[in-house]
## 1
Amino acid sequence: MLTEKPAPSDASGALPQQRQVQCFFQGGFVPLREAKIGVMTHAFMYGTACFEGVRAYWNADQGQLFLLKGLEHYRRLRNSARVLFMDLPRPPEELVDLTVELLRRNDLREDTYIRPSVYKSSEAIGVRLHDLAHDFMIVCLPFGDYIDTTAGISTMTTSWRRNADTAIPARSKITGGYVNSAFAKTDANLNGHDEAIVLTADGHASEGSAENLFMVRDGALVTPPATDDILEGITRAAIMQLARRELGLETVVRSIDRSELYVAEEVFLCGTGAQVSPVTKIDHRPVGDGRIGPVAGRIKDVYFDAVRGRLPAYADWLTPVY
Ligand code: PMP
């Protein structure tokens, strides 16, 4: 039981002042304030870690917290770790159970963000991936919206290009690779926009700083392929399923030119953090008529109902915590 209830998160990403929160660290449950790594830790010095961002949604009517797509996240974490010569300490199924246990121990009864990570734990100088120890941890914190999902967001194409698969594979959620996302996000924010659209090295629309991208063009729903340096998003896959089932729309997976976004009827970003976030402006141009379009609007509504456990058809996305 938390003795101090954390303030509702403003999604600033800052840790709430909650001294009793437990995390999973070095093989056991420990108070978050005691979970520390040394400054020589390889992952800190070289960005040699990988991570997941998972959400759990509180349903007040049912008095239930739902972990969203836990297994998919741990399977992706296993793949990210594999790319970096690491592995999970336990199979994905067991890590879902461990996460549920952590949420229970913290008695979390509000929307929550969960951050598991596999990281190079050796305290050593020497940039490499081999011959290093690794460890695993999970932290969780109350979390609201990451970016706006209601009004429509303003975006700009950043001049920072997405990490190429030949440099830091975007398919693997590598901590060091997120410096690229940080460049993009700061570029957009300091220029007065909510989010960045990031292009591949050859100039195709790849994704947002931490979101996948969809557009509606001539009535077709389109998203860039896995080979356009995207993270293979779990929300992206969920949205393709929703579009098919709810709207009868098959998603066309193909490369997207920058200028197609200027003439698309609709554009939206999606991700575990971002959820479904309609884009109403790109590079100072209104998207479509400048308002949230019918496809993004409908997908967003169904998505929020599904993740909060209001739609039995999508119950298999969720693991009840209590
Ligand atoms: N792209 C990037 C770069 C991301 O960081 C994220 C967030 N994890 C996404 C896309 C969306 O992925 P998911 O839907 O699996 O959260």
Note: Helices lie at 42-46, 70-83, 92-105, 178-190, 234-247, 258-263, 294-307.
## 2
Amino acid sequence: MTAPEAGRAGRSPTAPSRMADLRTRAEDLFPGGVNSPVRAFRSVGRAPLVLDKGAGPRVRDADGRWYLDYIGSWGPAILGHAHPTVIEAVREAAFDGFALGATGPREVELGELVRAAMPSMERMRFTSSGTEAAMSAVRLARGATGRDLVVKFNGGYHGHSDGLLVEAGSGVATLAIPGSAGVPTPTAAATIVVPYNDPDAVAAAFAAHPGRIAAIIVEPVAANAGVLPPAPGFLDRLREITTADGALLIFDEVITGFRVGPGGAQGRYGVTPDLTVLGKIVGGGMPVGAYGGRADLMAHIAPSGPVYQAGTLSGHPLAMAAGTATLRLLSADRYDALEATSARLEAGLRAAAAASGTPVGITRVGSLLTVFFRAGAPATAEEAFTADRAAYARFFGAMLDAGVLLAPSQFEAWFVSLAHGEAELDETLATAATAFAAVEAGR
Ligand code: PMP
């Protein structure tokens, strides 16, 4: 371990590193040493962290060093880590037993909160992950329309089910090729991939396959190629195109749900999808997904209808308790506070980059933000992918060494939480000023 990594821990640089030991043992157990790939820090060329505690806006590594955290559990931690009210709700639920294998009161309670916030979710199902929820929504769209093709956007991520784990081939609106080994080519070929923010490409795909497309699935604010805000009118065009063709519009709000406003992106932009996919915040940090939408569509789900979907631990009471406690704390004024914090962060980052002469494009929707190391904000994943990954790796490393933890990839969001206050912003911006200087020094 290098001296900067040993950092402010209080641990002497010569003491044995618990983190290094755990990392070695993890590498002997898990592919790449991790249980989800981005945790391996490969794209920033650093050794992965082992984290053993979170509190408010901070996380602690296994050697006792604390970091100001912008990974935010990859989205759920909108209240910060280990919020006492959420802990208490989970503790209380635990005393009633874990999953009991039947409907419980906490599922009903959370379901009603979700529907009150997103009225388009007339009926819903809870799952245990966003992947399951997105996969099930697509199956429902196919079952309800009797059509096979699905349109997704380049750079959009909807979990790792086979049909959604695809990349665009060459050309604008092409049938997709597998984005992972193990995905059958015919499965991938049922997905059409088009550029985000390009409604003409969407229209062209529908013109090429009239009456054959079951649904468009879209992150209404794309956040898995870095943050890409929807261009004005883009989501409305998707609504028009799908309605005209008899296809369904699925909003994957796993990241945006309860993040960009109380009603998610559909509330923020005023566009109503047929089906919505949720995850992350709705589970308050526990493993949860949900999908839902129009009652007539949800009536196709078993046992009401012929589209099968199930889950042993779906609607788990501890997860429902965490989700309910979290949503109850997210009053409208909390979103105003998040907006103010995030706007100040964005402005400060712009100023710091300008002062060091670093060309950046910063995108932000509410408390989701990306600093792209390229001149100007990208509109599409294709543009985002031209960002300078080496510059981001230097920035990430300089921030980490100074105690600020960002997502270990250029193409992810910073997740600002309600636990990030003025002091945390001051610390972040002072650190960013030196990190931008380090980027320039490394050119
Ligand atoms: N959809 C979106 C938009 C996501 O960002 C993610 C995960 N980051 C998923 C679906 C999959 O969710 P999970 O990791 O819970 O399976």
Note: The longest helix spans residues 332-356.
## 3
Amino acid sequence: MTAPADQRTADDIATLRSWIESCGPGGMVFFGGAGVSTESGIPDFRSTGGLYSQKYSYPPETMVSHSFFEARPQEFFQFYFDRMIAPEAKPNQAHKKLAELEQRGVCRAVVTQNIDGLHQVAGSRNVYELHGSVHRNYCTGCKRFFNLEETMQLHQAATDGVPRCPDCDAIVKPDVVLYEEPLDEEVITGAVQAIAQAELLVVAGTSLVVYPAAGLLRYFQGDKLAIVNLSPTSADKSADLCINAKVGEVFGW
Ligand code: ZN
């Protein structure tokens, strides 16, 4: 682990850790974005030089849209399995610490914009996945469930790369929220309730520009809002603490 960049960052990290350690039962909620998984080797697909490359003929936002999935499933799945899946990725220090904090009764819930499922791999149970998960896949015909490994096998077995249900031959669609698709109401409600009950809200690894992140923060009515991000966010001015550091560094104790 690298040392904090300066003494102020080190002090801020110490402050946040003391807030977390002195939090009441279920008092902490963690809201995370792509920056939580970058240290697991999963690139932020919204940042320049990240997931999106020049290799494809369409802009990335187009390729992960619902209409593109409907119109060009072959190219959708080529991009999806090439750039959005990281089956070898492992939880990092932040995922592990949050799972431990949940087990200790400190962390009420994790709300995440990530689709990699690494919080659950690390052991967290109360996770609200705003954008879905690559680990859940459903047949668009008979609704049969497939895990990631099974879906990858269907993808590899298909001549056109489009995973199809062995039962009814309909396309198997990842349970990932594409552009133009609504978020899951139940997930949103759970996330809102958790945030509304938090005394300490830690927002980490997100610039809060992706819908509905900034809106969800409005439900927070607790004492302390802490932001951990490598660049400024829209919520910095209302935060009690802004830490300019990697998420894994902050949660590495
Ligand atoms: Zn089916």
Note: The chain has two domains: 1-42+89-131+183-253, 44-85+135-176.
